[in-house]
Each structure stands twice: as structure tokens, then as C-alpha cells.
Design a protein that fits this description.
Helices cover 77% and strands 0% of the residues. By secondary structure, the protein is mainly α. The two termini are 36 Å apart.
């Protein structure tokens, strides 16, 4: 391994240790490490910018604008009261209900979009029940990544795999991945409910108080709500039809945000400034630094080297290769962003087909998808949705500790991958 590659690995490891320690804010660590990579000549400024995924950033910013405007209508308070009343305002059942809502939405929306829409509900209802929102936030993070695994449009790795393998269309993902995702979700909810059982307690009086509320009274501006729902519908339609319209998700999100701004803000500069101040800029800049950090590893062939070295142990055996891809994808995606890893693995899996003598690559594609998407649950920086939820929690004074999240999320992730292993073996191998 050349000197610059070793330096890139060293800087990445040190940055990751600092993020885990929480002694320095993760955004400061990521940005400082990225700048250091550029100053040392490990990656050029031009290449660093090239490694930044502006599609992800555009999606984040666009949906944050739409959600912040929508929040002014009172819709999230309406959803909070409605969902609470559906389960009798019982915290344990509410954890399952919010998790299910997040998982279903994540299957048909981007994970980040989903948590931006559902997390405000969590803060509102937890406040009214006077309980900590953290158990619900952790459940929503895990549910968003599980739900996103189930469909082609739910998570970026699936979109990338489908783009590389044309025969794997929307229905193929739904038919092959949805069953195991449903099973993993149910198991995860039971484990989370047991783990947080002592925190999911409130008084009968507070439950009764919520059951007596009228959710429709929470809608403060019906006209604005209609505009927001109209734009949100068009944006979601853009996500669903993006392949046919040749649109990136960022284009759909930013188009929706621009349209909603035109319909609602007009020439009100004060309101516009307040709106943009609510955008999670700390999360945006964390992603910028992270993309450059991982991009340096990709550019110096570190990720590809690790993947190739690991594959040599399988000697072309189908069962060993499939399981290695599944577990390697999960472990790697828990540590770094899964998008560059999947980008590295796609051509490698294709190479196995042409040179490794493996005729049917289908199990390998499902292993890559399950590993990369579900592995994102392993740590607080393993997936985009995780980072966004953590950033939103911090703004509400509810800091989610990296290590406390790891304590419950890592075992759940390992359990999910174990279930996936059994599923792939029984169905395909």
C-alpha cells in the first residue's frame, strides 16, 4: 500500500475515533479531516469536490425546506395525536406504530425524506406524554433502513444495483426482499420494546388527556396545508417515476421545494431567512466531509483492495462468496457510507460472473443489497437517515450518544444479518 493510501486510512481511523469519542462535534471532525486530506495532497480539491454526492445533499436540502414549510400547518401535531389515539396513547404500542409508519414510508420514499416527515411527530407526541423521545427515534432510524431495503426506490444502493442489473426491476426487489424485511422489522420492534420497557411509561391521566384531544383542531392553516400536500404529492410522484422521467432524486426534491417557495413565500425575505435557518446545515456539512473522507479511500483503492483480499478466501464457492458479500457489506456499511462501497462492489460482482465461473449472480445481488442497506443500522453514522435524526435530536436538546446507540443497534444489526443469511440460504442456495 502506497504512502498516501496509508495516510488516508490513518486520517479516516483517527477521525472515526474522534467521532465515537464525541469530544469534538462530528461535523467539525469530518470537515477538518477532509481539509487535511486536501492539504496533504492525498486528494486534490477538484477530486474532493467530485467525490461529494450532490444528489444526496440536494435531496436533503430540498426535503428539509418542504418539511419545514409543512410544519407550519400543524400537520405533524395532527399526525401525532391521530397516531397516539389509534394505539390508546400507550408508549409501547406507539413505538411499534411509529416504527411501522416509518418503515412503510421508507419503502416508497427515500429514507431521509421519511425521517424528515415522521421525526417531528415523535417530538410532538413524546412531549405531550412527557417521556423521552429517544426510544422512538432509535426505532425510527432502524425502521427506516429496514423499510428502505424492501424496494428499489427505498435506498440508494438498491437504485445503483438496479441501474447496473437491468432485469432487477421494482417488482423483483419487492418480491425478493420485502418478505425478509417484514420479518426483520417485527423481530426488531419486539427487541426494542423489551430493551426500552422502563423508559416507555407514562401516566393514565396523560394518556386520557391525549385521547380527549381533537386532532383536526391542530391544523392551523388549511390553505397552506393544501399547497404543501399538493407539492409533496408531486415530489413523491417524481421519486416514483424518476427512471421514466430521467430525474435524479435531488432534482425532484429541489423542484418541489422551489415550487412550494414560489407558492408560499413570495417576497417575504424575513420568513425566507427563518426558513433556511431551520435547514440542518450541520448534517449537510458532515456529509460533505464524510464523502471526501470515503472518496479518498476509494480513490486510493483501499476499499477495493480490502474487498478483493477478502474474496480470495472463498475460492469461488457460491455459498461462501454470497455470505462473505452479505457480512462484509453489512460490517463495512456500518462504518462508512454504503454508496461508495456498493459502487466498488458492483463491478467486482460482475467480474465474478465473467471470470470466477459463477453463472447465477442473483443471490450475490440480494446479499449486497441486504448487507449494505441493513448494515447502515449498525452505527449512528452508518446511513444518511441516522445522521439526520441525530442532528434533529440535538437541535431539540436530545443528544443521541454514539455509544448508547451502538449498544442496542449493533446487536440488532447482527441479528438482522443472521436472519438474512438464513433467508438467502433457504431461498436461493
Amino acid at each position: 500500500m502506497e504512502l498516501k493510501a496509508m495516510l488516508a486510512v490513518f486520517i479516516f481511523v483517527v477521525a472515526y475515533i474522534l467521532i465515537i469519542s464525541e469530544k469534538v462535534h462530528r461535523t467539525v471532525v469530518a470537515m477538518s479531516a477532509a481539509v487535511l486530506l486536501i492539504l496533504l495532497g492525498i486528494v486534490s480539491q477538484e477530486n474532493a469536490i467530485h467525490h461529494i454526492d450532490f444528489n444526496t445533499l440536494g435531496l436533503l436540502i430540498g426535503m428539509m425546506v418542504i418539511v419545514n414549510i409543512t410544519s407550519e400547518t400543524g400537520l405533524f401535531n395532527y399526525l401525532a395525536i391521530w397516531s397516539a389515539k389509534c394505539v390508546g396513547a400507550k408508549p409501547v404500542y406507539l413505538l411499534a406504530a411509529l416504527g411501522a409508519l416509518t418503515a412503510v414510508c421508507s419503502a416508497f420514499l427515500d429514507n431521509v425524506t421519511t425521517v424528515l416527515l415522521t421525526v417531528p411527530v415523535t417530538f410532538s407526541i413524546a412531549s405531550q406524554l412527557k417521556i423521552s423521545p429517544k426510544p422512538f427515534l432509535v426505532a425510527q432510524i432502524i425502521a427506516s433502513n429496514i423499510g428502505g431495503t424492501a424496494t428499489l426506490i427505498g435506498d440508494p444502493p438498491n437504485i445503483m444495483i438496479s441501474s447496473a442489473v437491468k432485469e432487477l426491476d421494482f417488482m423483483a426487489f419487492l418480491w425478493n426482499l420485502a418478505p425478509v424485511c417484514i420479518l426483520i422489522f417485527v423481530v426488531s420492534v419486539f427487541v426494542l420494546a423489551w430493551y426500552y420497557k422502563n423508559e416507555l411509561k407514562t401516566t393514565v391521566q396523560l394518556q386520557e388527556k391525549i385521547m380527549q384531544l381533537h386532532e383536526r383542531k391542530q391544523i392551523q392553516d388549511v390553505g397552506l396545508l393544501k399547497k404543501c400536500l399538493f407539492v409533496l404529492f408531486l415530489t413523491i410522484l417524481g421519486f416514483i417515476l424518476q427512471r421514466f422521467l430521467h430525474l435524479e432524486t435531488a432534482s425532484a426534491a429541489l423542484a418541489g421545494a422551489s415550487l412550494l417557495l414560489l407558492l408560499t413565500i413570495g417576497n417575504d425575505e424575513v420568513r425566507l431567512s427563518k426558513l433556511f435557518a431551520k435547514v440542518e446545515w450541520t448534517a449537510i456539512f458532515f456529509f460533505i466531509g464524510l464523502f471526501i473522507l470515503v472518496g479518498a479511500l476509494v480513490e486510493k483503492n483501499v476499499i477495493e483492495l480490502l474487498a478483493r483480499e477478502a474474496m480470495q478466501f472463498t475460492q469461488g464457492n457460491m455459498l461462501s462468496t454470497t455470505m462473505l458479500i452479505l457480512w462484509l457489506s453489512a460490517i463495512t456499511s456500518a462504518v462508512i457510507d454504503n454508496i461508495p462501497f456498493v459502487a466498488t462492489m458492483i463491478p467486482f460482482i460482475k467480474e465474478l460472473g465473467s471470470m470466477g465461473g459463477i453463472q447465477d449472480l442473483t443471490p450475490l445481488w440480494w446479499a449486497l443489497s441486504l448487507g449494505a442497506c441493513l448494515g447502515g443500522n449498525g452505527t449512528l453514522i452508518g446511513a444518511s437517515a441516522n445522521v439526520v435524526v441525530a442532528s434533529m435530536a440535538a437541535q431539540h436538546g436530545q443528544q443521541i450518544s454514539f455509544l448508547r446507540y451502538l449498544k442496542i443497534a449493533l446487536p440488532l444489526t447482527l441479528l438482522a444479518i443472521a436472519i438474512s443469511s438464513a433467508y438467502i440460504y433457504c431461498r436461493y442456495l
